[in-house]
Amino acid sequence: MLFRSLPGVTTVIERRDFDERSASLPELLEQTAGVEVRSYGGLGSYSVASIRGSSAAQVLVLLDGIPLNQAFGGAVNLGNIPLNNVERIEVFRGAVPVRYHTSALGGVINIITREPSGDAQIRAAAGIGSFGEHYESLFMTRSCERWRHAWSADFTGSRGDFRYTDDNGTPFNTADDFTASRQNNKHKALNLTWKTRFDGGPSERIIVTNNYFNKSEGVPGLGTTPSLTANLATQRHLASVRLERDDYLFGRTDFAAEAQVSWMRQNFWDPLNEIGAGSQDNSNISRRLGLLTQLSGEPLKNHYTTLVLQWSRERFSAFDTLDPRPVSGVSERKTLTASLEDQASFYGGRLLVTPSVRWENYDNSFAPDPFDPLGINSARSTDDDLFSGYIGARFSLNRAVTLRANGGRYHRLPSMEELFGDRGNLVGNSTLAPEEGVNYDAGAALDIMQIADTPGRLEFSYFRKEVKNLITFIQNSQRTARATNIGRAEIKGLEAAITLDPCPHWSLSANYTWQDSVDDSAVAFWRGNQLPGVHENQFNMHVKNRFGAGHSWYYQWSRDNGNFLDRANLKPVPARNIQTLGLNIETGLGSLNIEAKNFGDEQVSDIVGYPLPGKSFHVSIKRDLN
Q1: Can you list the residues of the chain whose pLDDT is less than 50?
Q2: CA separation for the pair 18, 20 (Å, rounded)
Q3: Most buried residue among 28, 237, 450, 600 by CB atoms closer than 10 A?
Q4: CB environment 95-120: b (16+ within 10 A), e (fewer)
């Protein structure tokens, strides 16, 4: 079923939309309507996404169907996912289909890697850029009778030593500002992916996926209090086996069963007490096993029903080798989920109504907080039953205009990393309460081709969400931000997006998002303030022109303003105008890309005062070797 037939608002970014660019996953998502990305700055740096003013942890991120949030807790670092092996990216802003397994208060980002093809193929790519950036990648496919295989390897690295303006800790006094180079911002990362597909027949297939990721990076600290030695090392391993069978159970049902395994280890090292509270050598290990069964079919005429049953077990352990106290033990969360969705079609398919209901049971066993300095958070167990659901409708007014509306209730338990984790600048809080909220949106879409001889699409949406016990990372010192419940919050906004091919060889896309986010907590000093990290205005525009034998150039402009770093709204973030210009040339050696990012040299900051890079230049080449 096509995403545009679903009631929710969805953006699909295909590989052809970014294959000719020197873009990263965070940069692509940041140019999507309703999506904000918060970053430490530079290639491969810590980057998280927010959808419609949500916290990053409320956004469910999946890689080939494996939920990264549940396995590793809290927000997902999008800087750890290379683009070279990605086939497409699906962004759900609002109502989320039940096939994504869990309640998602903020929305879903689903990343699908490239599928094995029937033909043998080898493609190599390499690139260099400012601040010592480089990447090398290789992708191969091969088939043999009913077997298809795909392998990819990606290696990236960077010094990250861009120049920035240091305000010397006095943001309201510009007389003592000076220019500095970012220190301890280097990284190197290796990503390996293997995917195999076996076709057992015309209606049966088995898909095996395996992903390994290894990264070492400096943790640079804030611009005014840089760190010179702190380091974070990450290892991640994902694996899944999926069986799919069409026309199951009397030829009326599609069946899928999947087993997923994930493991991750993060080591944070701060021997000189440059970031956290005291010298640290922390290790966080998370492990997850998941089992999934899905049945989809037409039990009745004009009804397409999906049932999803899922069980998972996540274990989390954390310890500090410099702490004389013994290892606290292992925290465990078992989750059992049952979800049911029905898509009912009326009036010859013009009206689609989609109700959904979900039940989730969480069986938690928490070890004592290993990073609690007072040792007051003892071991405890909880058992929670949570219910959520939504109802959506889509109505085709005519061939050109489609109307949509959705409403739902969602929830999210704090992750184990939000409860107990410590990655230096971002620390956990074992007293967090679960988040819960309601989302509404309504909008319309216009197929421009139906009213003018020009391919294009125009979309408009209004959204509103109310969240209780919202969890967000708030700066609690010059060095760290701590996970905190901020009581109630209310977010409403407007989205508008257009894609247009006005004439041969030209294409245009643009989107605008306005958000009004309000801290509705009981604390008078905060009540009525804007939520930190949520921009009031965002605008993105991309223009592309193709010329000659496969050549092209493009221009990207992004502007946002109206943001604060802190809950008291005392630390505003300056408006940003980021402009990028790129050129693609087809040569005898392959496809050459030259790109100038932020050529206006905007000097701005992001997460808790982290400076972002100014202008940078990048050159890459991609070539098919088969």
Answers
A1: 1-4, 71, 374-376
A2: 6
A3: 28
A4: bbbbebbbbbbbbbbbbebbebeeee
